[in-house]
Design brief:
The protein is 53% helix and 5% strand. By secondary structure, it is mainly α. Strand 3 and strand 4 form a beta hairpin. The longest helix is centred in the last third of the chain and has 20 residues.
Length: 341
């Protein structure tokens, strides 16, 4: 890897001045981003976030079965069960009276008492979803407490509805995640700013599925890039660090060394490799990519996939739907004219 020089001489200072001037000019040139679209007339115009967490934990435990039945119609994704069965009622009562779950619920209640900001963010995601995929239904959305159920994703789509487990978004530094044994590279994503990103991902999974059989590195990169680009389209102002679930320092590292890593991919002739070790190196989750640096983010294949697909969309007159229907990832790569910075 090349070493960044901290010295700036007079000539380089002039170049920096010119670069800033050009950047300033381009910001005011009126050029519109492909993802800068008008969604004001798109649905939904209003959005209701169904608070299953508040409703469930407010039930009087003395008349718990009756309380559950009163919630069943509104919260069918959670309560689609025989609530006359005492064993089922006991399961729900045991959940809300569990001391650990009570602690988690208290933390969620304090952090997410007012979710008007979240309503606006998720509504924006849905509006962009409706803009690009008007034939798709806008899902109902539920907020709940899972008790940090590690067997479930923080955001899921079930029964056509989006379910958001708020206890997975208390903040990256909350010690509760250390207590349940979650590694820091995972819990760093458990911030409120990641909620809409994860909602966008379940929508991306809804409209874009691809063959999970590994063909080669390039194919995997472009497929993952398509998914990342959908997320970006749903959240156009979201920084790539959130889209890719990188720390800011990791995003800085790959921004600095994008050209070097790509040169290693091309130079080592692995772009078309179907080797499983290559796949793991570029797509396995973890705290970093040790093959390059302890500062390099994991899942570098997702980063390069996003760059390739973004370059393709900028250099070709195609819609997002047309991109997803195009299965020729080799042609997409060639037409992308991708050049690392």
């Amino acid at each position: 890897m090349r070493t960044k020089s901290l010295k700036i001489n007079k000539i380089s200072s002039i170049y920096i001045f010119i670069a800033i001037a050009v950047s300033f000019s381009s910001c005011h040139s009126g050029k519109k981003s492909r993802l800068d679209v008008d969604v004001s007339v798109c649905e939904p115009q209003t959005l209701v976030l169904h608070r299953y967490d508040k409703a469930l934990f407010s039930i009087d435990t003395v008349n718990f079965g009756k309380g559950l039945k009163s919630l069943q119609d509104e919260f069918r994704p959670f309560l689609d069960a025989d609530l006359d069965n005492p064993d089922i009622v006991k399961f729900f009562r045991d959940f809300v009276t569990d001391t650990f779950v009570e602690q988690i619920n208290g933390m969620v209640a304090a952090r997410f008492d007012d979710v008007s900001w979240l309503n606006d963010e998720i509504k924006s995601v849905y509006k962009h979803f409706n803009y690009y995929f008007p034939q798709e239904n806008i899902p109902d959305t539920y907020l709940y407490v899972s008790g940090l159920d590690l067997g479930s994703a923080p955001v899921m789509m079930m029964y056509g509805s989006v379910l958001v487990s708020l206890d997975f978004y208390l903040g990256a530094n909350d010690s509760i995640y250390d207590m349940v044994g979650l590694p820091r590279y995972v819990s760093m994503r458990f911030t409120p700013s990641h909620i809409r990103r994860d909602v966008a991902e379940v929508l991306a999974n809804k409209v874009f599925q691809y063959n999970s059989v590994y063909k080669d590195l390039l194919t995997e990169m472009v497929n993952s890039g398509k998914k990342m680009y959908i997320i970006k389209a749903m959240c156009p102002e979201m920084p790539d660090s959130i889209v890719l679930r990188y720390k800011a320092s990791q995003m800085d590292w790959i921004s600095d060394y994008e050209r070097d890593v790509w040169a290693a991919v091309v130079g080592n002739d692995i772009l078309y490799s179907n080797n499983g070790d290559v796949r793991r190196k570029f797509f396995a989750d973890g705290p970093f990519t040790q093959a390059f640096s302890d500062e390099a983010p994991a899942r570098l294949g997702e980063f390069f996939g996003l760059q390739i697909v973004r370059s393709y969309m900028e250099n070709n007159d195609v819609t997002l739907s047309e991109l997803l229907l195009d299965k020729d990832n080799y042609a997409i790569f060639q037409k992308s004219k991708y050049k690392p910075r």
